[in-house]
Amino acid sequence: MENKKKSGFSIGASSLLVIIVVLALVCFAALSITSASADLRLSQKLADRTTSYYEACGKAQITLKDLSFSLSSIYEDSKDEEEYNQKIKESLADSLSFSCPMNENQTLQVSVSPLYPETASGDFLKITSWQIVNTTALNLDESLPVFQKR
């Protein structure tokens, strides 16, 4: 008679192993879907912010062009640098800095200083500040503390 050796695994062990592998794959699939959804929301927020920034930059460039045109006409009407600076102080004192809204929380603030060009085709202004400013206070979400203070 032949002695059959019994292995350590019974018939149900392979079925149990398949069930555990399938459950692990389902868990990884759920985590992957959750991560992809979070990445999509973040990408959409970033795209919206970038779009609003470049729209504000476009508005600021139009304002800079108009301001440069105004400075050009003042330059043509002036005899010298002193008269040029005096006319700028009288007519454009308030418009040397301006802001373009980006969204409900931020604006693009631009400040310029006038230049007296060497020729009529030179630069009439210099950008001294171009920055994004938060208009509302930051509300940080602290609803899920990791460490609790005792």
End-to-end gap: 73 Å
Number of helices: 2
Rg for CA atoms: 33 Å
Helix content: 40-55%
Q: What tags apply to this protein structure?
A:
2 helices; 3-stranded antiparallel sheet; single chain; alpha+beta; 150 residues
3D structure, described in words:
A hairpin with a 4-residue loop joins strand 1 and strand 2 (106-114). 52% of the residues lie in helices and 16% in strands. With 150 residues, the chain is α+β, with helices and mostly antiparallel strands. Strands 1-2-3 form a three-stranded antiparallel beta sheet, covered by helices on one side.
Give the topology, please.
Blueprint: H1 11-77, H2 81-91, E1 97-101, E2 106-114, E3 125-134
Helix pairs in contact: 1-2
